[in-house]
Amino acid sequence: MELGLTDRVFLVTAGSAGLGRATADQLVAEGARVVLVARRADVLDDAVADLGSANAVALAADLADPGTGQAAAELAIRTFGRLDGALISAGGPPPGAALANSDEQWLAAFDSVFLAALRTVRAVIAAAAGPVALGLVLSTSVKVPIPSLAISNGLRPGLAMLLKQLADELGPDGSRVFGLMPGAVLTERIRFLHGRSADPAAARAAAEATIPLRRLGEPAEFGRMAAFLLSPAASYVTGSVIPVDGGALRAL
Known about the structure:
Layout: E1 9-13, H1 18-29, E2 33-38, H2 41-51, E3 56-60, H3 68-80, E4 85-88, H4 103-127, E5 133-137, H5 150-170, E6 176-182, H6 188-195, H7 200-209, H8 219-230, E7 241-244
Parallel strand pairs: 1-2, 1-4, 2-3, 4-5, 5-6, 6-7
């Protein structure tokens, strides 16, 4: 299938590793160019070297900084002369129970997850010359709460409803917005969460046992789905929240 991504330009936040990097890899493989945003400058440098300086540029910054989204959008225009959309992954809220997380943790996560995503959406729309495709990386906590991740359970469904409203507001101009709900994909964050267990190997095995495909996902599997949805090939998909979870999600 021809995705129609040649010469299109996308911001990819959390783009140095994991789901963001996997998406950037696929976008570039399909002919697009990317602006990678993440905090670790050294890892970003390696990513740009792998993707090629003609295809990728990096901004080492924290998405929680109110100016990061705008700076990334401006970098895209300055480097590549256009901006066609973004894959926005904002923050990984700390674990904890609903009554155990402090007010400070809830407020910091709202800023780094919810507001950071909204600011980036605003920046992309302001910088782009035409319709854009916007993907928000959410979680299966949009539909079903995940034990010990109360903050994510609280914030991700709100972002999902926000993208529904954005689809209404942006659709008349031809822009699209969608959400992706990754399940247990083998990223640094999953390794961290399993590592908090007394027996990480047993924690992974228990997680795999709940997945119909009986394995954790690979980042590349997420990246292929994200690249398709960002492309013109998915031109009639907007306002949708789509699981990429090996069938683990039990809700409709």
